[in-house]
Amino acid sequence: MVQEYSGSGDPAKSLELLWGIQAKPTRGPKPALTVGRIVTAALRIADAEGLAAMSIRRVADELGVGAMTLYRYVPGKGELIDVMLDTVYRELPLREVDGDWRAKLDEVARESREMYLKHPWLLQVAVSRPPLGPGVMAKYEYELSAVEGIGLTDVEMDAAVALVNGYVHGAVRSAVEAAQVIRSSGITDKEWWEAHEPLLDKIGDTKKFPLASRVGTTVGQEFDAPYDSSHAFEFGLARVLDGIAALLKDR
Amino acid sequence: MVQEYSGSGDPAKSLELLWGIQAKPTRGPKPALTVGRIVTAALRIADAEGLAAMSIRRVADELGVGAMTLYRYVPGKGELIDVMLDTVYRELPLREVDGDWRAKLDEVARESREMYLKHPWLLQVAVSRPPLGPGVMAKYEYELSAVEGIGLTDVEMDAAVALVNGYVHGAVRSAVEAAQVIRSSGITDKEWWEAHEPLLDKIGDTKKFPLASRVGTTVGQEFDAPYDSSHAFEFGLARVLDGIAALLKDR
DNA sequence: CCTCACTGAGTACGCTGTACGAAGTAACTG
DNA sequence: CAGTTACTTCGTACAGCGTACTCAGTGAGG
Q1: What whole-number distance in Å separates Cα of residue A104 and Cα of residue B24?
Q2: Which of A38, A129, A206, A215 is 20 to 30 A from B24, comparing alpha carbons?
Q3: Which candidate from A3, A178, A209 shows the least CB-CB separation from B128?
Q4: Residue closest to B4 by CA, chosen among A177, A135, A31
Q5: For chain B, first and last CA: distance in Å?
Q6: Apex CA A231: angle with CA A144 and CA A228, to 5°?
Q7: What span, in angstroms and rounded, lies between the C-alpha atoms of B205 and B196?
């Protein structure tokens, strides 16, 4: 399936939605729903069953209303995802950390990681032009504050933050998807490699691709061992932060 | 939309498909198609119109056959994407670079970037358990060869390669998506920010989120300027490689 | 009380992946 | 040679999707 695009609708409508600026109607019957209730239901489904299960009809069922009713509150599915995303962002702790930029960026990465683990469907949402809701803005502000005043230009600050975010996104995605594949197929990585070793051998795997088969086997075994998956995360994060540190040292 | 998952079908069937191991039938009419022709057509559609446009019916139309005909050659859409992916990987130059690990990893990143720019739909394919076709294996082997023998453990080698790949994936995705949004909406980042400045001001943007609005504005202007988009890529890549360099230095 | 903005939701359209089964083709067997 | 049988193509169908359109019912303002 293709990625779900956030912000595919009218940006102005999205912003109104995100900031809760809606001219309240005076006439007519009281609305039975609120955007908040819809978002809560949608989040519950997405958290539990993934983004694919979160269809408009499904959310409507959950709320005991007709499918088309949701369109009275939300312009479309894209905008609903926008609000879901901003809502999740708004619930981040954004803890203030005493220490240097490195300690702060570390916390930024850690909070993002927790968020993705809690809401794995976020990994499937493409945030090209992020919905500038209060949650997204607050998160961005928090991230930038970690690298403010350490000698980077504005563009570099954005790039550094993007670098960390990109790393976390990629790292968590690998881990989550590996876990999901194991859960859905009931086959661990090791078992999978072992099952296909005969075929791969016949192809000439170990001869043509000596490094790939050596490293692949090692990594596969490592991953299946009762293994603290945050090890790999820490390793990569340290490298990313080292890279930023090296840049600062040059100045 | 949700991400398209590769390799959702029977792994054994996928492998047979990827390596072209198919027991040829003797009886019955000659097949009108080949897997190769199907993949070529699918790639043409995906490259030109994105992964969302690449439906089974669309590919079948392109080939002038009924939709269900494709299922005689390919178990399902997931496996088709597997083969598409491996095919693209197989076309990578994988240039041998004279120089140290850094020069080699640089080339690895550059080739990946070119690949993503040429086949943007790859950014939407989730490669959790990569289809171990010849292309994927060759690429992995090539990547590992860049960091072989420089003092990393097998697991670290894999992590280093994953780090670079993850960075490239994230960086190119941001750039491509930004460009796609501009093309589809006809609005540049700058125009978008300017259009919503009044609303954001009313909300108290600049007061509540001083860093975000300052940096956001700067970055927006920078991006719209006739700007070599590889600048940002180079910056981030340099940071990633610096990080790996720092690890090697500690040893 | 009437008006009319507003809400809820049934129906329908075009799209998706793919299971099933019927019909046609060509090579092997008797 | 005919008969069998493996194999191909593909029309039909099903369950699901997002959402446009339409219309009946509601309830506050004039």
Answers
A1: 61
A2: A206
A3: A178
A4: A177
A5: 45
A6: 125
A7: 11
